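Long-time lurker. I teach an intro course on protein structure, and each term I like to show students one example going from raw sequence to a predicted 3D structure in token notation. This year I'd like something fresh instead of my usual example. Would anyone be willing to generate the tokens for the chain below so I can use it in lecture? Attribution to the forum is fine with me.
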Amino acid sequence: MGRYVGPSCRLCRYLGEKLMLKGEKCATPKCPVERRKSPPGGYGKTRRRRLSDRGMQLREKQKVRFSYGVLERQFRRLFAEAKRMPGIAGDNLLIVMERRLDNVVYSAGFADSRAQARQVVRHDHIRVNGRKMDIPSYLVKEGDVISWHEGSTDTELYKRVAQQVKDSTPPGWLELDEERMTAKVTALPTADDIDRKFDGKAVVEYYSR
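-- Reply from a regular --
Happy to contribute to a lecture. Here you go:
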């Protein structure tokens, strides 16, 4: 599956808000959104055009897609799956995105960003129920235990996140064991667990036209 390989900070400047795509850097003065208020190609102009309803819907769709690191074709497929599920399509879509393995690795504090989490999964550092799983889009199930490959515990990455994870606060549906560096899915996420900065209803309206 393809992925976006361009500059992450450009996406945040395009939307005019931080998506925390580069982890700790986003919380420092080095963040380009802090230093350059103008959108890409704005040539120093900070004023943005007023968006139409369609433009707002597109913006919300892109915000979700950029945040989770999913390309348009895959995102459309996930939306189609969410519509077939019982319940509210917008909430279903965000719940599916939360269940992605790369997001779970990030939410557990095993990576600084979802992009890094994707790389951690792809590089075979992660196990699900003790089995190899190098597919970032894998959807976790209730009872799944996410752990590190034994051969990865000597890496500098593991040693660093093992220190950082002590300060992380995973969502309520994840149970974190800091000593064993494992995260258990105690329940599937619900609409109440979704970050309210995402407007699932707007995404549904965008694709419904």
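Some talking points for your students: The radius of gyration is 18 Å. The domain at 98-185 is CATH 3.10.290.10 (Structural Genomics Hypothetical 15.5 Kd Protein In mrcA-pckA Intergenic Region; Chain A).
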